């Protein structure tokens, strides 16, 4: 596609990157067909091609982002389904990331929107703060009836209260930095991203990952100084804050490489995995560029690692459970990990079913379900409809965001690794009702 | 550059009134007037041409479409219909004084009838969406343009779209039974129906391929076909374009009609392989994708004969797909071909001409010569079985000279198609892209006769004007409506 940047504009390395991306788009429109928001609202402005066009215009004119541009870019889930579809290999992810930063820098949001975004950025990446906020929210649920009105603020508040679990599990020991040694002979040493929200919402996931890896002869390190991956703030357009998280993690794991060596950096939260694999790009112009690139190279999703280590179950379920596998967008589109989770679940003795339109997002998308409750709700209903149609015993996914988004509709939502751990000698997943299979 | 007509100043002057009028007819969410929201609608799949429309409306029912058209008719406002905006001929290119009617929200399948083998769908259902809705029951909708994932059936009607499998099953005109058409006056017509022939004139023949100039189709009754027992694709790789062209000629000439017979040259093979990882032969100068269908015995017998014919042309390799996944990958590469060219060139012009199959070797040779003469690369991808060429001319839109050359190169290719006894378009339509070449194909008398059909439906020439017919010679205005012959 033609672009119109001046040589001065192109001297800005970020604009030069955007120009390269825009030039690779041939405007064929294939991406519209697999975009969750376009499929839902049928408006070019809510399609990847439309957004690319708006971004092109915003960057070319150098004008501040207008309200409509902010509105339609905000409505993008960053699910990256368009990138899987794109025949031209357009790097939409880096284009929308750059555009979000631009919107934050140049668009004056309404006060309540600004406040909520700041609040999310100040709480979500920090487990202790999030835990406190969720406790307050579970009290707040009692007062949900008071949160009336159809304004954006009220709808967002209700969305937040609805997402907060009624009861929070107690913190797990895996939350604190430490080394979890391999059982028997050590085959590998990996760092686990402890992250932020997941360990508060469902510490059982990290526990299962560590147990399973330990049993398979892998030493797992939760490195001191590592924390949130930066995705949450990154997708809120807070570029510098996100880079801060990225730097801290790169430093922590680089120290770990020096100390005991690392064969991999493993994530069991695919939303984070996508960003970790992008650290090399995010920090490309910093002194940490080389270290960041190395961390990105080392990063694997837990299912990639388990396949590499030749995971084998140690027992077979008495009655095989039907698992509806929900492909998290960050896993299927962001990291292009599509077969590994299904292969492993089948190997573990589960019957794996996939819903219609597996490429479509469930609406979770980081903080999207709080900031865009209406679209998120429609996507959730659509996804749950296709999952229920499979008549499964449970829903499995590799991302805490999806698990939270899809919970509360009659089907247990369980992380893939908990199921794999269970069949390899671990405990029954807490969320699985007694009596169901196994 | 192809000239766009002068906008009607009286309409531009009434911009606000037009916006108000549209808002009175449709829900607020269905009327777009803000410039930054209009921007993404200024172009379609032919992004070298752009024009900001006066407004975009996104109706949700036939009645809303009728209300909009009636309003535009009463107020002398031009209308540009739009489906998914994937036209490679600029069929959905807006005009500065026109309202774009986007059909994307009319995306429901209304009825599926297997006993009588038809489905009724709204215009905004994607081409592939129809097949997806019926494939579990063993049926499919045959025309399959490369953009079938995204393009919408309403646009397929406008352009009489084809696709790889049209060699056996025919184009849109052969697979549509009925159309609910809204005229520019806002009248709703039911043309044809769930049967193969109708009394009186063949309305399907008139409306299909009329490029949105006679009315807007809102509901379409399509033929459903029983899916074949099985299909198998094979790849045949050759040492030159001409040899591959002669092989196509020999296959068709022997009386075999494969379900698809596709041609890709070296640049196309490399770009598509990078996208689809389908195992395309990277050492070949040209490759054919040949697909057969039927029972396993039928497939084996046909593939045997085809292999024997290919063998006479000194092939580099012949490979039959061994699984459904392998066939899917082979087709993924071919269907994504245009976009995949984005990997090797920032811009391309996708030509669409048709030639008699027997002239294929000569035409390919001359396209190669033109490529050298213009100094622009060309990737050849096309439906070889029915002689529908899609040479993709690679250029750089940021360089005006390169763009000018690409357009001239494209025009030369299409003139060549006409010269060897073919025609200007196979399946993309004329749009704005080939408008000025229509007089290469037709005499003025023949064009006038077509213009009279347009006038009969749309006396004020409000619907998708500035497409299909050349502008009045020496001016940038659309020709005055042609009066009916005395």
Summarize the structure.
The complex is a heterodimer of chains A (438) and B (486). Chain A is α/β, with parallel strands linked by helices. Chain A has four domains: 7-106, Alpha-helical ferredoxin (Fumarate Reductase Iron-sulfur Protein, Chain B, domain 2, Orthogonal Bundle), CATH 1.10.1060; 111-163, no CATH class; 173-307, Rossmann fold, CATH 3.40.50; 312-423, Rossmann fold, CATH 3.40.50.1860.
Tell me about the largest β-sheet of chain A: 5 strands, mixed
- Unreliable sequence segments of chain B: none
Domains of chain A, number: 4
Residue windows where pLDDT falls under 50 for at least 5 positions of chain A: none
DSSP summary, beta strand count of chain A: 9
Q: In terms of quaternary structure, what is this?
A: heterodimer
Name the chain pair with the biggest interface and residue counts per chain: A-B, 39 and 42 residues
Q: Order of strands across the biggest sheet of chain A?
A: 1-3-2-4-5
Helix content of chain B: 25-40%
Mean pLDDT of chain B: 92
Q: What count of helical segments of chain B does DSSP give?
A: 17
Q: Give the CA-based shape of chain B.
A: globular
CATH top level of the domain at 109-226 in chain B is Alpha Beta
- What is the terminal-to-terminal distance of chain A? 55 Å
* Named CATH topology of the largest domain in chain A: Rossmann fold
Provide a count of the helices of chain A. Answer: 24
């Amino acid at each position: 596609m033609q672009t119109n940047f001046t040589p001065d504009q192109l001297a800005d390395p970020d604009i030069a990157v955007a120009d390269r991306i825009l030039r690779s788009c041939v405007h064929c429109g294939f991406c519209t067909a697999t975009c969750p928001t376009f499929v839902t609202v049928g408006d070019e402005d809510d399609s990847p091609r439309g957004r690319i066009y708006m971004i092109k215009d915003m960057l070319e004119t150098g004008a501040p982002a207008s309200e409509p541009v902010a509105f339609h870019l905000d409505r993008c889930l960053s699910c990256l389904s368009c990138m899987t579809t794109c025949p031209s290999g357009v790097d939409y992810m880096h284009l929308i990331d750059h555009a979000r930063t631009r919107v934050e820098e140049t668009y004056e949001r309404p006060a309540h929107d600004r406040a909520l975004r700041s609040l999310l950025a100040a709480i979500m990446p920090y487990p202790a703060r999030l835990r406190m906020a969720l406790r307050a929210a579970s009290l707040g649920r009692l007062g949900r009836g008071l949160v009336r009105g159809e304004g954006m603020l009220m709808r967002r508040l209700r969305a937040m209260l609805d997402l907060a679990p009624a009861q929070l599990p107690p913190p797990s020991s895996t939350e604190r930095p430490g080394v979890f040694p391999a059982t028997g002979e050590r085959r590998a040493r990996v760092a686990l991203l402890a992250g932020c929200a997941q360990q508060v919402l469902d510490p059982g996931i990290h526990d299962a990952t560590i147990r399973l890896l330990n049993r398979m002869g892998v030493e797992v390190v939760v490195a001191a100084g590592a924390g949130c991956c930066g995705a949450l703030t990154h997708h809120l357009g807070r570029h510098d804050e996100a880079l801060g998280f990225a730097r801290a993690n790169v430093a922590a794991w680089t120290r770990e490489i020096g100390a005991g060596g690392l064969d991999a950096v493993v994530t069991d939260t695919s939303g984070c995995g996508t960003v970790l694999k992008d650290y090399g790009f995010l920090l490309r112009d910093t002194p940490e560029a080389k270290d960041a690139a190395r961390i990105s190279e080392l990063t694997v999703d837990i299912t990639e690692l388990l396949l590499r280590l030749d995971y084998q179950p140690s027992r077979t379920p008495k009655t095989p459970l039907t698992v509806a596998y929900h492909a998290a967008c960050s896993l299927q589109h962001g990291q292009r990990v599509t077969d590994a989770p299904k292969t492993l679940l089948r190997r573990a003795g589960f019957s794996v079913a996939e819903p219609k339109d597996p490429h479509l997002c469930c609406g979770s998308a980081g903080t999207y379900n709080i900031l865009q409750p209406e679209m998120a709700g429609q996507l959730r209903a659509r996804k749950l409809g296709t999952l229920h149609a499979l008549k499964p015993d449970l829903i499995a996914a590799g991302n805490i965001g999806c698990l939270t988004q899809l919970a509360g509709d009659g089907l247990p939502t369980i992380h893939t690794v908990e199921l794999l751990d269970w069949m390899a000698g671990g405990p029954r997943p807490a969320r699985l009702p007694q009596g169901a299979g196994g | 550059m192809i000239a766009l007509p002068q906008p009607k100043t009286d309409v531009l002057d009434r911009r606000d009134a037009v916006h108000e009028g549209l808002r009175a007819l449709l829900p607020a969410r269905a009327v777009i007037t803000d410039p930054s929201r209009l921007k993404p609608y200024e172009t379609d799949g032919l992004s070298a041409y752009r024009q900001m429309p006066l407004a975009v409306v996104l109706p949700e029912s036939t009645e809303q479409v009728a209300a909009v058209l009636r309003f535009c008719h009463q107020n002398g406002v031009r209308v540009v219909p739009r489906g998914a905006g994937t036209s490679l001929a600029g069929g959905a290119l807006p005009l500065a004084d026109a309202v774009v009617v986007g059909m994307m929200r009319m995306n429901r399948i209304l009825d599926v009838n297997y006993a009588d083998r038809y489905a009724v769908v709204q215009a905004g259902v994607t081409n592939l969406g129809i097949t997806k809705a019926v494939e579990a029951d063993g049926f499919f909708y045959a025309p399959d343009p490369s953009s079938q994932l995204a393009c919408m059936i309403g646009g397929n009607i406008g352009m009489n779209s084809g696709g790889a499998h049209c060699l056996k099953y025919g184009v849109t005109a052969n697979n549509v039974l009925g159309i609910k058409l809204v005229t520019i006056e806002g009248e709703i017509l039911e043309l044809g129906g769930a049967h193969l022939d109708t009394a009186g004139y063949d309305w399907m023949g008139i409306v299909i391929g009329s490029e949105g100039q006679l009315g807007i189709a809102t509901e379409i009754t399509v033929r459903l076909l029983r899916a074949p027992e099985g299909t198998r694709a094979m790849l045949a790789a050759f040492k030159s374009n001409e040899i591959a062209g002669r092989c196509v000629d020999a296959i068709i000439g022997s009386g075999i009609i494969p379900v698809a017979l596709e041609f890709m040259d070296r640049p196309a093979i490399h770009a598509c392989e990078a996208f689809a990882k389908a195992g395309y032969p990277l050492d070949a100068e040209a490759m054919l994708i040949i697909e057969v269908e039927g029972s396993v015995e039928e497939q084996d017998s046909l593939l045997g004969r085809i292999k024997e014919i290919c063998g006479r042309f000194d092939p580099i390799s012949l490979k039959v797909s061994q699984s459904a996944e392998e066939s899917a990958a082979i087709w993924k590469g071919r269907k994504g071909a245009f976009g995949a060219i984005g990997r090797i060139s920032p811009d391309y012009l996708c030509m669409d001409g048709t030639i008699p199959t027997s002239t294929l070797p000569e035409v390919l040779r001359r396209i190669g010569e033109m490529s050298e003469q213009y100094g622009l690369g060309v990737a050849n991808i096309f439906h070889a079985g029915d002689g529908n060429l899609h040479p993709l001319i690679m250029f750089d839109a940021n360089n005006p000279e390169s763009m000018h050359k690409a357009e001239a190169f494209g025009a030369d290719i299409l003139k060549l198609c006409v010269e060897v006894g073919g025609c200007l378009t196979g399946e993309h339509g004329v749009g704005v892209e080939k408008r000025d070449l229509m007089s290469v194909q037709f005499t003025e008398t023949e064009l006038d006769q077509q213009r009279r059909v347009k006038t009969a439906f749309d006396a004020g020439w409000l619907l998708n004007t500035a497409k299909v017919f050349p502008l009045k010679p020496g001016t940038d205005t659309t020709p005055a409506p042609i009066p009916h012959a005395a």
